[in-house]
């Protein structure tokens, strides 16, 4: 049985050369973000951003919800996949970093499709449930504080449509999930989330060992 292929630096470079289609706007945003404290660690890889665009395009993409904006690289990737007339709601605890992304969203011509909500994520999600109702988003991307993952997941299950997709980032969390000495709240939050989703009969899921771990989730189809 073939095992997981280990990516050397040379092989990673090959994948990037023959797969990545990052344009100038995205590349410049990524470069600016890398200059921030922990910017490179907190930003999605460009390959992951490209995957998000592809995944969103496979849904109707009329409504997308992003939990965790940072400087808006993934926001831009997702907004580009929106169907005509579609909107993206992105939420973060502060607008400090999103203000960086706004200029790039404008340059890319998608600023008018993006709504930024600032505040506690759980509170924002509850407000969206009240305002828009269940099943109001075609894709939810979760990339926020890890201790809150189980809670964000439950609310996202309400907000995503029956045919929609939930994408969760950092589900291997720098490898800390398998480190018995790692007992911080964020690592424990990722572990709790991974166990919750694995055992949840309501959904189908796959944890992909790409980047820092990406989990794809959709509601289980009900058959007659």
Automatic annotation (TrEMBL):
Keywords: Methyltransferase, S-adenosyl-L-methionine, Transferase. InterPro entries: Cation-dep_OMT, SAM_O-MeTrfase. It holds the Pfam family Methyltransf_3. PANTHER family: CAFFEOYL-COA O-METHYLTRANSFERASE 3-RELATED, O-METHYLTRANSFERASE-RELATED. This is O-methyltransferase.
């Amino acid at each position: 049985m073939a095992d997981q292929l280990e990516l050397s630096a040379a092989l990673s470079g090959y994948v990037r050369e023959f797969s990545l289609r990052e344009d100038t706007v995205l590349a410049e945003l990524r470069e600016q973000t890398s200059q921030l404290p922990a910017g490179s660690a907190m930003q999605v890889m460009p390959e992951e951003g490209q995957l998000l665009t592809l995944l969103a395009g496979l849904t109707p993409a009329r409504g997308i919800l992003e939990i965790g904006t940072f400087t808006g690289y993934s926001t831009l990737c997702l907004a580009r996949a929106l169907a005509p007339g579609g909107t993206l709601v992105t939420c973060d605890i502060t607008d400090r970093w999103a203000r960086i992304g706004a200029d790039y969203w404008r340059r890319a011509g998608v600023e008018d499709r993006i709504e930024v909500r600032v505040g506690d994520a759980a509170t924002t999600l509850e407000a969206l449930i009240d305002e828009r109702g269940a099943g109001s988003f075609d894709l939810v991307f979760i990339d926020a504080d890890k201790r809150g993952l189980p809670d964000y997941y439950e609310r996202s299950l309400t907000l995503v449509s029956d045919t929609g997709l939930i994408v969760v980032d950092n589900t291997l969390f720098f490898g800390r999930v398998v480190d018995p000495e790692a007992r911080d709240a964020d690592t424990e939050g990722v572990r709790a989330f991974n166990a919750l989703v694995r055992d949840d009969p309501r959904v189908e899921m796959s944890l992909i060992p790409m980047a820092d771990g990406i989990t794809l989730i959709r509601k289980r189809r009900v058959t007659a």
